Amino acid sequence: MARHDGRKNDQLRPFKMKRRFTKQADGSILVQAGGTTVLCTASVEAKVPRWLEGEGKGWITAEYSMLPGSTSPRKNRKTDGRSTEIQRLIGRSLRAVADLEALGERAITVDCDVLEANGGTRTASITGAFVALVEAIRTIDLPDPKKYPLRDSVAAVSVGVVDGRVLLDLDYTEDFAAAVDMNVVMTGSGQFVEVQGTGEETTFSEKELTALLKSARKGIAELTAIQSKTLGRQWPF
Amino acid sequence: MARHDGRKNDQLRPFKMKRRFTKQADGSILVQAGGTTVLCTASVEAKVPRWLEGEGKGWITAEYSMLPGSTSPRKNRKTDGRSTEIQRLIGRSLRAVADLEALGERAITVDCDVLEANGGTRTASITGAFVALVEAIRTIDLPDPKKYPLRDSVAAVSVGVVDGRVLLDLDYTEDFAAAVDMNVVMTGSGQFVEVQGTGEETTFSEKELTALLKSARKGIAELTAIQSKTLGRQWPF
Amino acid sequence: MARHDGRKNDQLRPFKMKRRFTKQADGSILVQAGGTTVLCTASVEAKVPRWLEGEGKGWITAEYSMLPGSTSPRKNRKTDGRSTEIQRLIGRSLRAVADLEALGERAITVDCDVLEANGGTRTASITGAFVALVEAIRTIDLPDPKKYPLRDSVAAVSVGVVDGRVLLDLDYTEDFAAAVDMNVVMTGSGQFVEVQGTGEETTFSEKELTALLKSARKGIAELTAIQSKTLGRQWPF
Amino acid sequence: MARHDGRKNDQLRPFKMKRRFTKQADGSILVQAGGTTVLCTASVEAKVPRWLEGEGKGWITAEYSMLPGSTSPRKNRKTDGRSTEIQRLIGRSLRAVADLEALGERAITVDCDVLEANGGTRTASITGAFVALVEAIRTIDLPDPKKYPLRDSVAAVSVGVVDGRVLLDLDYTEDFAAAVDMNVVMTGSGQFVEVQGTGEETTFSEKELTALLKSARKGIAELTAIQSKTLGRQWPF
Amino acid sequence: MARHDGRKNDQLRPFKMKRRFTKQADGSILVQAGGTTVLCTASVEAKVPRWLEGEGKGWITAEYSMLPGSTSPRKNRKTDGRSTEIQRLIGRSLRAVADLEALGERAITVDCDVLEANGGTRTASITGAFVALVEAIRTIDLPDPKKYPLRDSVAAVSVGVVDGRVLLDLDYTEDFAAAVDMNVVMTGSGQFVEVQGTGEETTFSEKELTALLKSARKGIAELTAIQSKTLGRQWPF
Amino acid sequence: MARHDGRKNDQLRPFKMKRRFTKQADGSILVQAGGTTVLCTASVEAKVPRWLEGEGKGWITAEYSMLPGSTSPRKNRKTDGRSTEIQRLIGRSLRAVADLEALGERAITVDCDVLEANGGTRTASITGAFVALVEAIRTIDLPDPKKYPLRDSVAAVSVGVVDGRVLLDLDYTEDFAAAVDMNVVMTGSGQFVEVQGTGEETTFSEKELTALLKSARKGIAELTAIQSKTLGRQWPF
Is F25's Cβ below 8 Å from some Cβ in E? Predict the structure, then answer.
């Protein structure tokens, strides 16, 4: 049985990345995953947060927000608990593959602004944020040219159980119907960064967990390939 | 003497409008005026603000925000006095050409989110917001098909005095150097909607005022033509 | 046809200024324009905002607020978009005639608190704020006695189109009925500082604009004379 | 030994009340107690807070705020703990002499805005608020003309121990030097409404407490006489 | 090699539950997991949030907060992103085992206030919240006595990788040193509710994931037994 | 006639203090006064607020909050005017017996978190806060061992007039019914620190005031004895 948009169970939505979509920020990527569009911009600042001053290390953080017109009906323009949770996840995911000492004392903020939401905005944000981060790093004079500040690439995808089937890369309709919803963040070399699985008003078995992780691994491998192609470079070196 | 980007004194920046840039909102226009990019989305809601309930009229309002990565250095993600002032201006400009009774009891919110800022974000927002508004109205079952809710089109442009010259459509560099900065909002039929002229830490004469208004009028006429072409329709009928 | 309070079209409301109405602030003026009463106090502080430190310049800013009991029905005690917009306008108007270097590294804050509102609170605030500012400057040891920090005086008045007539200095009833509402800020020597004209849910022609500016110019000249008399001094020297 | 301004220990500062200082609010009194000036306005609203709806009773509440220019150096324009505490005190004091059922289902808000602060702002506020409240009640159609909504008058004064002496009606200098600071709210008939005595970084004995209360009683009697004269009416009938 | 407090790798900290620790709330449990102490209170309200009105269903939600004195150094008393994230997790975990229709139109709020924090506050909160919830449900007249509103019990525990070893129920010291940190929420019948694994500035392999889940399963089984004993009842029936 | 819980008019509720109830804070006391339970923790910080820097003095402050589950119905988790007022009272009460210079440049914050509220939460907080403060001071290396930072002990109790009788230590039911409500803060040596008497929607006579103070004095003496016993030490030395 095909999915409502004709995809196979383990098939990603069409995934596109447009580099330098805007010019002001140091890195800027427009990510499109099916009907979900996220603008990821990375801005470098020559100083770190106060609590990190004098440590000889850099910092990477993220902010996530949905534009009011990104959903129908329109969404209010204020930060809620969900946004906070997502931006903490994006920041952790990027730092997990970073060597903050190699960055020098500077901070990079990656802003993920959702222009259009149709499911999977947080995973599209992570996948795009990594590419914007690489672009921003290219504009930096690194303290030690031999130490690159990123040890691996990172990408994310959602998986879920819908009507008893394990599906890859849920759109909004599928996400709404899912009994289990899981977001998986992995590196290009296949290590886990984050696993967040939630029974939506229900629970799930160990067997389902295993099937979900397998599907996610397949999706991440494909996203990693797209990232590498966009950047003309592959992790880990 | 040519301007720093080669334009003549009374020449607009390249101005583009992309319809249906996003799909969730009822109207969605991506406006590009030189290096300034604004996403204008219009969302219809089947109810009006509380203070207008039962009046048999609709409401049109606007919100304006700059994405953090739209400027360099990065801008903080909080509403300041300037944003509030601009979104009030956009809302007034749209309502000035609207027949709110012809709209029926519904509210339209136009969100203008600046993706990239290089001067003239508020005027690009107004010019784009009008087009997004028309698109959103197309999705509505109007109470009386013979009464269209917009009496005229509306567009806006900035003019200023830089080094003694009157310039049309200032970019960020020119805006920063301007002794006088004026935003003019006009209808397609050449009436004024708003005139906001400010001596930036200086003052200006009546003669300068006259020259500024003349240049603005020329720019508005060109923008009106682009709006009409984008929409395939011209105001006033 | 006379106005509802018997005034001629180009006649100001009775305008009074009481110096030293309160004693704590460095400058303090109670302004009464018909039924509108504003207390303008100017406070000097021996330091500038952080972003201006070390520049050898001073700063002038303003805050505007309406007391809850200044209107009927009572107004809530929170800053809204309108207040923010007005206090930005007052600050810009004062700085347009100021020589901030002549002030030395100090900040002057002018607070305009509306005790009673009956139209024209923002223009009465600007006209009074200038006088409170002069008073406050009198308490300062200027860095260079030969360089006075104000190049010109500044005053403001509203004009509007009501029932097809151009009226000067609108009270609340007239403001409510106005098709066009314009606030004009000018210097004592007749230069423009700000022109803010708004079609209230309508539009206006170039001819109307010209008539409005002419009426405003007459009103400003009279207000400038009252300022000069109150201060015993006239700008520009 | 005389006080620094020549007063005797049990002497009030010159105390003046100006009725109808502003016109918009239903009641409006300008109170001056020496160098302290407070504008008290009372506004009637034809509905009660939600939690009181349908009880057939009215409500009286108060708000207290200091204008930024009321002190030197200038005070920031935000509500702090002290303001909240004072406005709760004013509200309780007014309600203590009120018959809320006789008021009918309406709310009266008394705003006490300090224009100039030189000690005793909260007690001047209470004394003025009562008079503004009476004025506002005069504008109301009472449910039962035989039941007047105020059972007694209410006034307040500060007393303190400074250099071992019990002083009445402290100004700012005395308040700053006081070892004990007490605010007493009493009715025209000599009953207590509130007694708030504080050892400022110190403590006080029962004997001091007795002397303080005696001095306060004398001051309240004089303030009650001024209130009665201002209103042309005396409590309790 | 023993852990720093002498525990074995897969050993829980001493875990105690005190029923009816406070009396005002409908359910009240004091949970102690080693040096972590959480007070969980459940309060029933006879109405549901607005968006659920008229659906014939109930609602269960949670709030989480740390007292300022629960940590050393003292923690500020404001809700941060972390608290928001945790209270959303607690709420979801409780709802995953609930039959909201069997609850009738009422809301239960479970407050988890951390009195003392030494690692594992969110998992202790979930484990205690479930027991407080059961106690609160005992005070309710259920719409249908045959349909009990909880289908299963729920408990939570943390696991992590520290110095290459998989440890159960991390205290603060271990949590700080952990390379991988995972919170697992499971039902009494052994189904997953949530799995949240995070590489703290690092990543983890599939093998580690498997070992972590196995250890968590053992801990949850023990916590479920303590819950059952505390309540004198076992899930699922 | 006995009180509703069998107490005599001048009898305290059972009063218990549990030392070291939690371990993270420098001082930690669980206070129980009948059905009221407050956790008082004192945290020492090696720096003072900015406005006190370089003065060679310490600072003592307090925060007060009620847990949502401490009342029935549940209370919202936000700071209101009442909380602000109470925490200011607790702070002043502690500082009244303190020698801030003897403390050295450090700040102690005492948090009073109400776990269970049944009347008298602010007085139980003060009485417990003093003991937590002493405990925290024991952890400090004082600048001069001969100068102890506390000159006296401090405790508090409520008294009130209920049905014409003067009652000591009101519980919630009595507090609700009280015509007069008074909180008295006194030192171990019998000096007043604060007296706050309020006619709750009514007034009170001098005779009632005298009787209330006498009853409070008796209660404070008993509370002081319990404090001394808990601490194994008596004030003043």
Answer: yes
Contact yes or no for B43 and A113 at CB 8 A: no
* Interface contact C43-D117, CB threshold 8 A: no
C-beta of residue C17 within 8 angstroms of C-beta of residue C31: yes
Give the Å distances, CA to CA, from B177 to B162, B163, B201, D222, E114.
Answer: 6, 8, 11, 65, 56
Taking only residues 152 to 171 of chain C, the set having a beta carbon closer than 8 angstroms to any beta carbon of chain B reads 152
Query: CB distance A81–E84 less than 8 Å?
Result: yes
Q: Do F193 and D187 touch (CB under 8 A)?
A: no
User: With an 8 Å Cβ cutoff, is D211 touching chain F?
Assistant: no
Question: pLDDT below 50 — which residues of chain E?
Answer: none
Cis peptide, bond prior to residue E49, ω within 30 of zero: no
pLDDT tens column, D16-60: 999 999 999 999 999 999 999 999 999 999 999 999 999 999 999
At residue C211, what is the residue type?
A
Choose from D74, D79, D84, D111 for mutation: most chain C CBs within 10 A.
Answer: D74
Burial (CB count <10 Å: 0-12, 13-18, 19+), residue D177? middle
Residue A151 gets which letter from DSSP? Answer: S
The pairing of strands E27-33 and E15-19 is antiparallel
State pLDDT tens for residues F15-39.
999 999 999 999 999 999 999 999 9
Q: Which token pair is D8? A: 């005797």
F193 touches D: beta carbon within 8 Å? yes
**pLDDT (0 to 100) of residue A237:** 53
Confidence (pLDDT) at E236 = 65
- Read off the tokens for D19: 């009725």
Check CB contact of F202 with chain D, cutoff 8 Å: yes
The predicted model scores a pTM of: 0.91
Name residue E215's amino acid. S
Inter-helix orientation angle D206-231/D121-137, to 10°: 30
Cα distances from F8 to residues F1, F3, F157, F184, F215, in angstroms, run 8, 6, 16, 19, 12
DSSP for A44-106, please give it.
Answer: EESS--GGGTTSS--EEEEEEEE-GGGSSS---SS--HHHHHHHHHHHHHHHHTB-HHHH-S-
Interface confidence (ipTM) of the complex: 0.93
Give the strand order in the sheet containing F180-187.
D165-168, D154-162, D180-187, D192-199, F192-199, F180-187, F154-162, F165-168
Q: What is residue D55's predicted lDDT score, i.e. its pLDDT?
A: 92
Question: Which residues of chain B are within 8 Å of residue C86 when distances are taken between CB atoms?
Answer: none
In three-state secondary structure terms, F106 is coil
CA distances from F63 to E100, F85, F87, F89 (A): 38, 10, 5, 10
Average pLDDT over chain C reads: 95
In whole angstroms, give the CA distance from residue B160 to residue B137: 34
- Please report where in the chains the tokens 């006064």 appear, as a residue: F33
Q: What is the pLDDT of residue B78?
A: 84
Please state whether beta strands F165-168 and F154-162 pair in parallel, antiparallel, or not at all (unpaired).
antiparallel
Give the residue among F107, F128, F157, F163 at the shortest CA–CA distance from F27. F128
D188 closest CA partner among E233, F203, F43 = F203
User: By C-alpha distance, which of F159, F168, F174, F66 is closest to F121?
Assistant: F66
pLDDT of residue D236: 65
Query: Which residues in chain A (111-130) have CB-CB distances under 8 A to chain B?
Result: 111, 113, 115-118
Peptide bond before C49: cis, by omega within 30 degrees of 0?
A: no
pLDDT of residue D58: 97
DSSP assignment of B50-110: GGGTTSS--EEEEEEEE-GGGSSSPPPSS--HHHHHHHHHHHHHHHHTB-HHHH-S-EEEE
Nearest Cα to B212, choosing from B153, B155, B169, B154? B169
Q: Is C82 within 8 Å of chain B by CB? A: yes
Q: C204 contacts in B (CB within 8 Å)?
A: 191-192
Closest CB to E204 among A192, A205, A209: A192
